[in-house]
Amino acid sequence: MKAVIRNQDTMRKRAEEALSTSGIWYRRLFETTKDGILILDAETGMIVDVNPFLVEMLGFSHEQFMGKRIWELGFFKDIVKNKANFLELQQKEYIRYEDLPLETADGRRIDVEFISNTYRVGHQKVIQCNIRDITERKQALKKTMADLERSNKDLEQFAYVASHDLQEPLRMVASYTQLLAKRYQDKLDADANEFIGYAVDGANRMQKMINDLLLYSRVGTRGKLFVTVDCTAILSQALTNLKMAIEETGAVITHDPLPTMTGDESQLVQLFQNLIDNAIKFRGKETPHIHISCKSIEEWEVQNGELKSEIRNPKSEI
After folding, report:
1. Sign of the CA dihedral 35, 40, 46, 49?
2. Residue 44 belongs to a domain with what CATH number?
3. Is the distance from CB of 252 to CB of 287 less than 8 angstroms?
4. 142 partner at 20 to 30 Å CA-CA among 26, 105, 278, 285?
């Protein structure tokens, strides 16, 4: 009997020591974390604790927080406007606001992420509010967006310049290859005629690509008006553009009947070309087999329950 009591005493002491240790750890985290933390009584909304970082973040003293109800603090008005509004924090175990403005003691505005968790400490139900300053993150994001916008404008300007500067030398190449084809037709052997034909066709296709360069680079601003296009013809054009890659790899490309649809012809050619080029480029050791087919969204949903697309190598489907 005495041994049982001693074991129970030992277990109780260990439990008390564990609780004491966890309490010390929690307090240390509470006081050193780089997030502002506010502890509220879940029943009354009264502030029962506030960590040093929140005091530093907002510039108000510890005493200005303690004993106040959260809706009595003007700088939290966008989170809890009044007592009735406090019900949301009371009733939900977890709430997260991604972007809220707070005003500091010196009148600065900062943007914060606000997270509240409700839990029990003994018999008391409390709400822990974690408040993280995201002002620098937002400013960095704005800078990144501004840099991206500037980069897009630079790309747009480059497309203008490239489109203009490449036109003249390419026009010269196209003109002279067409002149060769006209002047020496049937005067050269079959191979020469074929090679000249390739040169003329390649120059013409490059001219079209350069003409489409600007519109393609500005797909998010001013693209071409959508027109009715034949996807079989689109695929044929893409395969012609990839003729060298297809011949070098021995790629076998097949397709089901393709529909007529509404779209931007040059962008659709680029889409097919990129997909097929990637399927050829990222192949295994075997000869790539690429099959192009299409289904309506309704057919996909009936067959799969959701819209899916996959490319498999060495036998790929687009």
Report:
1. negative
2. 3.30.450.20
3. yes
4. 105
